[in-house]
Design a protein that fits this description.
The protein is an all-alpha fold and 106 residues long. It is 65% helix and 0% strand.
């Protein structure tokens, strides 16, 4: 049976993680607010912890927002450092000395 050819892995997709996590956090908080008027009814049916689960989801979402923003900023700093390093190395190559000893030039 012939093997299928291996292909290189595609690069990871870039997404706006802060917006995604922020949207989820807002939805959890809205669900908490929507369930608050029904606390008594939910407790009567054995689901009294649902509003607090939603509030916990919103709280964890805030932690996720902090993490995603820190990650986004770290990636931006890393890309800026790589670009600065590439600029410096391109500038050194464009001086025309090609690594030759300056004393050996005419």
């Amino acid at each position: 049976m012939p093997k299928t050819p291996l292909h290189a892995s595609p690069p990871p997709l870039e997404a706006n993680d802060v917006a995604i996590v922020g949207g989820g956090t807002v939805l959890w908080f809205v669900a908490f607010l929507a369930l608050l008027p029904f606390r008594g009814s939910l407790a009567d049916h054995g689901h009294g912890n649902w509003p607090w689960i939603c509030l916990a989801g919103a709280g964890l979402g805030l932690i996720g927002l902090w993490y995603c923003r820190a990650r986004r900023d770290a990636i931006a700093r890393s890309r800026a450092a790589e670009a600065a390093t590439a600029e410096r190395s391109a500038g050194e190559r464009s001086t025309g000395d090609n690594g030759a000893d300056p004393a050996a030039r005419d």
